Amino acid sequence: IIESTAPGARFAVGVAEDADVGSNSLQGYELEPNGYFAVEVKERQDGSKFAELVLRHSLDRENEQSLRLVLTALDGGDPPRTGTAQLWINVTDANDNPPVFAQDRYRVSLREDTAPGSTVLNVSASDADAGSNARITYGFGKTPSKVLQKFLVDADTGTITLKEALDFEDVRGYTLLVEGRDGGGLVAHCEVEVEVLDVNDNAPEITILSLSSPVAEDAPGGTVVALLNTGPGGDQRPELVLAKALDREEAAFHELVLRASDGGDPARTGTARIRVTVLDANDNAPVFSQAEYTVRVAEDVPVGFTLVTVTTTDADEGLNGQVKYS
């Protein structure tokens, strides 16, 4: 009898025979006390009496898989005689129990450098039913496509594996909705929370937010040349400043290599290059090629005669390096 049979259902159990007649013949049936069945006596048109089992309370295979009851037939003699029969009732399974996961919520942490194909964790569900009604198939419930690209669940074992590489800098955690479905279509769900752990797989990146170039050679020490960004979200903004005044006549430009190192183990380093041009300041006076010129001139030289040519140099450039004589 299937356990989902509704109370009130009847089952014929046959007829006891008694060779006597009259009041000494079969008069009724009795069933040993139990929590599920009662016996009712029915009489055919020929006067014979037969028994029917009547289900009074719902069966539960998960509580009792089988029942052994004694049915007694009684005659009307004095003293009465009885006959007995054993009723073996097998309670067959109905899919009246959904799967149940061992945990409603699972939590697991994965390093972002975990190799694809690695096992994330194993979820498991049980079902109190039997046979195909207890056979559970695992899968993902309503889950975003970006999550389905990253993870795979084995339909038979409930083992979740990683399909694609993780990236802490992209996504720091995932929530998976896993369902277990039994052979009768009943479903249970659990959540799997995957935390992605950061590893030092990124070197610092130096971003030049602003650059003041050219820089006047007479700019004082401490002048800000460049504003940088070396942290995520712009939370680290070091400045490049002059340690001392520049000298264009010594170097017209400077090629700088900036390095930023993180605190990882091992540490990673990022670099950036900056070219700073030095803007001339009029900080150099003209210099004559000679400090003194001696010229001998005859008294009869005509007006306009060139007596001597003097030369000067100026280390500055542009207008600052153009010399006028007087």
TrEMBL record:
Q: Which CDD domains match?
A: Cadherin_repeat
Q: Which Gene3D superfamilies match?
A: Cadherins
Q: Which InterPro entries match?
A: Cadherin-like_dom (IPR002126), Cadherin-like_sf (IPR015919), Cadherin_CS (IPR020894), Protocadherin/Cadherin-CA (IPR050174)
Location comes to:
Cell membrane
- Which GO BP terms, alphabetically? homophilic cell adhesion via plasma membrane adhesion molecules
> Record keywords: Transmembrane helix included?
yes
- GO CC annotation: plasma membrane
Q: Which domain of life is it from?
A: Eukaryota
A Pfam family reported for this protein in Swiss-Prot or TrEMBL: Cadherin
Ranges where the Cadherin domain occurs: 1-101, 102-206, 240-288, 289-326
Protein's UniProt keywords contain Transferase:
no
The protein's topology relative to the membrane is: Single-pass type I membrane protein
Chain coiled-coil ranges: none
The name this protein carries in UniProt is: PCDGH protein
Instruction: List the keywords (alphabetical).
Output: Calcium, Cell adhesion, Cell membrane, Glycoprotein, Membrane, Repeat, Signal, Transmembrane, Transmembrane helix
Q: Name one GO molecular function term.
A: calcium ion binding
